[in-house]
Amino acid sequence: MDKWQQQEFPMTLADFDFLRNLAYSHTGIVLPERKKQMVYSRLSRRLRTLSFKTFSQYCRYLETNTQELPEFINALTTNLTAFFREKHHFVHLDKQICPQWLANKQKRIRIWSAACSTGEEAYSIAMTLYGRIDLNLFDLKILATDLNTQVLETAKKGIYSAEVLPTIPANFSSKYTKPLPKTEHFSIKQRIKDLVHFKQLNLLQPWPMNGPFDVIFCRNVFIYFDSETKKRIIKKFRTLLSDGGYLIIGHSESINDFAADFEFVGQTIYRAKQRSAPFLSSHLQQLQGAE
User: Fold this and answer.
1) Is the domain of 180 the same as that of 210?
2) In terms of residue numbers, what domain contains 160?
3) Is there a smaller number of Cβ atoms within 10 Å at the N or the C end of the chain?
Protein backbone atom coordinates (compact mmCIF):
# COMPACT_ATOMS: atom_id res chain seq x y z
CA MET A 1 0.00 0.00 0.00
CA ASP A 2 1.14 3.55 -0.80
CA LYS A 3 2.75 5.08 2.31
CA TRP A 4 0.53 8.14 1.90
CA GLN A 5 -2.49 5.92 2.45
CA GLN A 6 -1.01 4.69 5.74
CA GLN A 7 -0.54 8.15 7.26
CA GLU A 8 -2.73 9.65 9.97
CA PHE A 9 -4.61 11.42 7.17
CA PRO A 10 -4.58 9.34 3.96
CA MET A 11 -3.61 11.38 0.89
CA THR A 12 -4.09 10.11 -2.67
CA LEU A 13 -2.20 11.32 -5.73
CA ALA A 14 -5.43 12.99 -6.87
CA ASP A 15 -5.60 14.84 -3.54
CA PHE A 16 -2.06 16.12 -3.90
CA ASP A 17 -2.62 17.18 -7.51
CA PHE A 18 -5.78 19.06 -6.50
CA LEU A 19 -3.99 20.85 -3.67
CA ARG A 20 -0.93 21.86 -5.64
CA ASN A 21 -3.03 23.03 -8.59
CA LEU A 22 -5.15 25.11 -6.22
CA ALA A 23 -2.03 26.60 -4.64
CA TYR A 24 -0.55 27.44 -8.04
CA SER A 25 -3.71 29.05 -9.39
CA HIS A 26 -4.11 31.32 -6.36
CA THR A 27 -0.52 32.04 -5.31
CA GLY A 28 1.80 31.09 -8.19
CA ILE A 29 3.67 28.78 -5.84
CA VAL A 30 4.95 25.65 -7.59
CA LEU A 31 4.76 22.47 -5.48
CA PRO A 32 6.66 19.61 -7.14
CA GLU A 33 6.43 16.00 -5.98
CA ARG A 34 9.31 16.48 -3.53
CA LYS A 35 7.19 19.00 -1.59
CA LYS A 36 4.51 16.43 -0.83
CA GLN A 37 5.70 15.87 2.75
CA MET A 38 5.72 19.62 3.39
CA VAL A 39 2.17 19.94 2.03
CA TYR A 40 1.04 17.02 4.18
CA SER A 41 2.66 18.42 7.32
CA ARG A 42 1.35 21.95 6.99
CA LEU A 43 -2.19 21.04 6.01
CA SER A 44 -2.57 18.29 8.59
CA ARG A 45 -3.12 21.01 11.18
CA ARG A 46 -6.15 22.22 9.24
CA LEU A 47 -7.55 18.68 9.02
CA ARG A 48 -7.25 18.29 12.79
CA THR A 49 -8.93 21.64 13.36
CA LEU A 50 -11.79 20.70 11.04
CA SER A 51 -12.03 17.11 12.35
CA PHE A 52 -11.48 15.57 8.91
CA LYS A 53 -10.13 12.03 8.56
CA THR A 54 -8.70 12.17 5.03
CA PHE A 55 -7.30 14.69 2.57
CA SER A 56 -10.07 13.76 0.17
CA GLN A 57 -12.56 15.20 2.65
CA TYR A 58 -10.52 18.37 2.90
CA CYS A 59 -10.30 18.72 -0.89
CA ARG A 60 -14.08 18.45 -1.18
CA TYR A 61 -14.42 21.05 1.57
CA LEU A 62 -12.16 23.45 -0.33
CA GLU A 63 -14.27 22.98 -3.46
CA THR A 64 -17.47 24.04 -1.71
CA ASN A 65 -16.31 26.48 0.99
CA THR A 66 -14.49 29.52 -0.38
CA GLN A 67 -13.97 30.89 3.13
CA GLU A 68 -11.43 28.11 3.71
CA LEU A 69 -9.15 29.36 0.92
CA PRO A 70 -7.34 31.99 3.08
CA GLU A 71 -6.72 29.35 5.76
CA PHE A 72 -5.37 26.99 3.08
CA ILE A 73 -3.03 29.68 1.76
CA ASN A 74 -1.92 30.72 5.25
CA ALA A 75 -1.07 27.12 6.10
CA LEU A 76 1.00 26.57 2.97
CA THR A 77 2.98 29.77 2.63
CA THR A 78 6.52 29.93 3.98
CA ASN A 79 7.26 32.68 6.49
CA LEU A 80 10.97 32.33 7.27
CA THR A 81 12.37 35.79 7.96
CA ALA A 82 14.61 37.69 10.37
CA PHE A 83 15.68 41.17 11.29
CA PHE A 84 18.45 42.46 9.00
CA ARG A 85 18.52 39.19 7.08
CA GLU A 86 21.10 39.45 4.26
CA LYS A 87 22.74 42.40 5.96
CA HIS A 88 24.45 43.68 2.80
CA HIS A 89 21.10 44.86 1.45
CA PHE A 90 20.64 47.22 4.39
CA VAL A 91 24.25 48.40 4.15
CA HIS A 92 23.61 49.25 0.48
CA LEU A 93 20.41 51.06 1.41
CA ASP A 94 22.26 53.06 4.06
CA LYS A 95 25.55 53.76 2.29
CA GLN A 96 24.62 53.90 -1.40
CA ILE A 97 20.92 54.53 -1.98
CA CYS A 98 20.06 56.91 0.83
CA PRO A 99 22.93 59.35 0.02
CA GLN A 100 21.56 59.60 -3.53
CA TRP A 101 18.17 60.72 -2.20
CA LEU A 102 19.78 63.26 0.09
CA ALA A 103 22.05 64.64 -2.64
CA ASN A 104 19.13 64.97 -5.06
CA LYS A 105 16.96 66.54 -2.35
CA GLN A 106 14.31 63.97 -3.21
CA LYS A 107 11.39 64.80 -0.94
CA ARG A 108 9.11 61.82 -1.65
CA ILE A 109 10.52 58.37 -0.84
CA ARG A 110 8.51 55.18 -1.25
CA ILE A 111 9.70 51.66 -0.43
CA TRP A 112 7.78 48.41 -0.85
CA SER A 113 8.53 45.29 1.16
CA ALA A 114 6.75 42.64 -0.90
CA ALA A 115 6.19 39.33 0.91
CA CYS A 116 7.00 41.00 4.24
CA SER A 117 5.97 38.00 6.37
CA THR A 118 5.91 38.89 10.09
CA GLY A 119 7.38 42.34 9.52
CA GLU A 120 11.05 42.01 10.38
CA GLU A 121 12.19 43.12 6.92
CA ALA A 122 9.98 46.22 6.85
CA TYR A 123 11.02 47.27 10.34
CA SER A 124 14.69 46.71 9.45
CA ILE A 125 14.24 49.11 6.51
CA ALA A 126 12.55 51.66 8.78
CA MET A 127 15.31 51.45 11.41
CA THR A 128 17.99 51.83 8.74
CA LEU A 129 16.44 55.03 7.38
CA TYR A 130 14.96 56.65 10.49
CA GLY A 131 18.19 58.25 11.67
CA ARG A 132 19.40 59.07 8.15
CA ILE A 133 16.40 61.00 6.86
CA ASP A 134 14.86 64.10 8.43
CA LEU A 135 11.17 63.25 8.49
CA ASN A 136 10.33 66.95 8.79
CA LEU A 137 11.82 67.47 5.34
CA PHE A 138 11.21 64.13 3.62
CA ASP A 139 7.98 62.22 3.00
CA LEU A 140 9.02 58.62 3.71
CA LYS A 141 6.57 55.73 3.61
CA ILE A 142 7.15 51.98 3.60
CA LEU A 143 4.48 49.67 2.20
CA ALA A 144 4.69 46.09 3.49
CA THR A 145 2.50 43.41 1.93
CA ASP A 146 2.02 39.70 2.24
CA LEU A 147 -0.35 37.03 1.02
CA ASN A 148 -0.71 35.50 4.49
CA THR A 149 -3.21 37.34 6.70
CA GLN A 150 -2.02 35.67 9.90
CA VAL A 151 1.58 36.85 9.63
CA LEU A 152 0.36 40.37 8.86
CA GLU A 153 -1.42 40.47 12.20
CA THR A 154 1.87 39.64 13.91
CA ALA A 155 3.65 42.27 11.83
CA LYS A 156 1.18 45.01 12.75
CA LYS A 157 1.62 44.32 16.46
CA GLY A 158 5.41 44.58 16.19
CA ILE A 159 6.02 42.30 19.17
CA TYR A 160 8.77 39.69 18.99
CA SER A 161 10.57 37.17 21.16
CA ALA A 162 13.53 38.50 23.14
CA GLU A 163 15.55 35.64 21.65
CA VAL A 164 15.81 37.49 18.33
CA LEU A 165 16.80 40.86 19.81
CA PRO A 166 20.54 40.21 19.23
CA THR A 167 19.86 40.05 15.47
CA ILE A 168 19.14 43.80 15.56
CA PRO A 169 22.30 45.98 15.65
CA ALA A 170 22.82 47.29 19.16
CA ASN A 171 22.67 50.95 18.12
CA PHE A 172 19.21 50.29 16.63
CA SER A 173 17.80 48.02 19.32
CA SER A 174 18.67 50.55 22.05
CA LYS A 175 16.80 53.33 20.22
CA TYR A 176 13.97 51.61 18.40
CA THR A 177 12.83 48.72 20.61
CA LYS A 178 11.53 48.47 24.15
CA PRO A 179 11.25 45.45 26.47
CA LEU A 180 7.79 44.40 27.55
CA PRO A 181 7.79 44.05 31.36
CA LYS A 182 7.20 40.59 32.82
CA THR A 183 7.43 38.94 29.40
CA GLU A 184 10.10 37.39 27.20
CA HIS A 185 9.25 39.80 24.39
CA PHE A 186 10.06 43.26 23.09
CA SER A 187 8.14 45.75 20.99
CA ILE A 188 9.12 47.94 18.07
CA LYS A 189 8.74 51.58 19.14
CA GLN A 190 5.84 53.54 17.72
CA ARG A 191 7.94 55.99 15.69
CA ILE A 192 9.28 53.07 13.66
CA LYS A 193 5.86 51.46 13.34
CA ASP A 194 4.44 54.72 12.03
CA LEU A 195 6.66 54.52 8.94
CA VAL A 196 5.28 51.13 7.87
CA HIS A 197 1.85 50.42 6.40
CA PHE A 198 0.88 46.72 6.28
CA LYS A 199 -1.56 45.45 3.67
CA GLN A 200 -2.68 42.04 2.41
CA LEU A 201 -1.75 41.50 -1.25
CA ASN A 202 -1.58 38.55 -3.62
CA LEU A 203 1.16 39.18 -6.19
CA LEU A 204 -0.84 37.25 -8.79
CA GLN A 205 -3.87 39.49 -8.50
CA PRO A 206 -4.26 43.17 -9.53
CA TRP A 207 -2.16 45.60 -7.53
CA PRO A 208 -4.03 48.68 -6.26
CA MET A 209 -1.00 50.94 -5.79
CA ASN A 210 0.26 53.31 -8.48
CA GLY A 211 3.82 54.00 -7.40
CA PRO A 212 6.36 55.05 -8.23
CA PHE A 213 8.52 53.19 -5.72
CA ASP A 214 12.17 54.01 -5.17
CA VAL A 215 13.05 50.56 -3.79
CA ILE A 216 11.23 47.23 -3.92
CA PHE A 217 12.37 44.41 -1.66
CA CYS A 218 11.11 41.06 -2.94
CA ARG A 219 13.41 38.53 -1.36
CA ASN A 220 13.17 34.74 -1.37
CA VAL A 221 9.89 34.78 -3.26
CA PHE A 222 10.86 34.06 -6.85
CA ILE A 223 12.27 30.66 -5.86
CA TYR A 224 8.67 29.45 -5.49
CA PHE A 225 7.49 30.64 -8.92
CA ASP A 226 7.83 29.18 -12.39
CA SER A 227 9.58 31.21 -15.10
CA GLU A 228 6.45 32.72 -16.63
CA THR A 229 5.08 33.91 -13.29
CA LYS A 230 8.47 35.30 -12.33
CA LYS A 231 8.80 37.17 -15.63
CA ARG A 232 5.33 38.69 -15.31
CA ILE A 233 5.92 39.94 -11.76
CA ILE A 234 9.34 41.41 -12.60
CA LYS A 235 7.78 43.35 -15.49
CA LYS A 236 5.09 44.68 -13.18
CA PHE A 237 7.72 45.68 -10.62
CA ARG A 238 9.48 47.68 -13.33
CA THR A 239 6.32 49.65 -14.18
CA LEU A 240 6.04 50.68 -10.52
CA LEU A 241 9.73 51.52 -10.03
CA SER A 242 10.98 55.00 -10.73
CA ASP A 243 13.79 55.29 -13.28
CA GLY A 244 16.90 54.47 -11.27
CA GLY A 245 14.83 52.71 -8.62
CA TYR A 246 16.09 49.50 -7.04
CA LEU A 247 14.84 45.92 -7.00
CA ILE A 248 16.37 43.81 -4.23
CA ILE A 249 15.94 40.03 -4.31
CA GLY A 250 17.07 37.03 -2.23
CA HIS A 251 20.55 35.53 -2.07
CA SER A 252 19.57 32.35 -3.95
CA GLU A 253 17.62 34.17 -6.66
CA SER A 254 18.48 35.76 -9.98
CA ILE A 255 16.59 37.83 -12.53
CA ASN A 256 19.30 37.62 -15.21
CA ASP A 257 16.98 35.88 -17.66
CA PHE A 258 14.44 38.72 -17.37
CA ALA A 259 16.70 41.67 -16.58
CA ALA A 260 16.60 43.69 -19.82
CA ASP A 261 15.05 46.58 -17.89
CA PHE A 262 17.61 46.43 -15.07
CA GLU A 263 21.32 46.77 -14.46
CA PHE A 264 23.18 44.76 -11.84
CA VAL A 265 24.67 47.05 -9.18
CA GLY A 266 25.42 44.79 -6.22
CA GLN A 267 24.88 41.38 -4.68
CA THR A 268 21.25 40.57 -5.69
CA ILE A 269 20.60 44.30 -6.15
CA TYR A 270 19.34 45.66 -9.49
CA ARG A 271 18.70 49.19 -10.70
CA ALA A 272 15.92 50.09 -13.14
CA LYS A 273 17.23 51.45 -16.41
CA GLN A 274 16.01 54.75 -17.81
CA ARG A 275 12.89 54.32 -19.95
CA SER A 276 10.89 56.78 -21.98
CA ALA A 277 7.50 57.95 -20.73
CA PRO A 278 5.61 56.63 -23.80
CA PHE A 279 7.13 53.18 -23.34
CA LEU A 280 6.16 53.00 -19.69
CA SER A 281 2.62 54.16 -20.39
CA SER A 282 2.18 51.55 -23.11
CA HIS A 283 3.81 48.84 -21.02
CA LEU A 284 1.57 49.56 -18.02
CA GLN A 285 -1.55 49.43 -20.21
CA GLN A 286 -0.50 46.03 -21.57
CA LEU A 287 0.02 44.64 -18.08
CA GLN A 288 -3.29 45.98 -16.80
CA GLY A 289 -5.07 44.50 -19.80
CA ALA A 290 -3.53 41.09 -19.10
CA GLU A 291 -4.89 40.97 -15.53
Assistant:
1) yes
2) 87-290
3) N
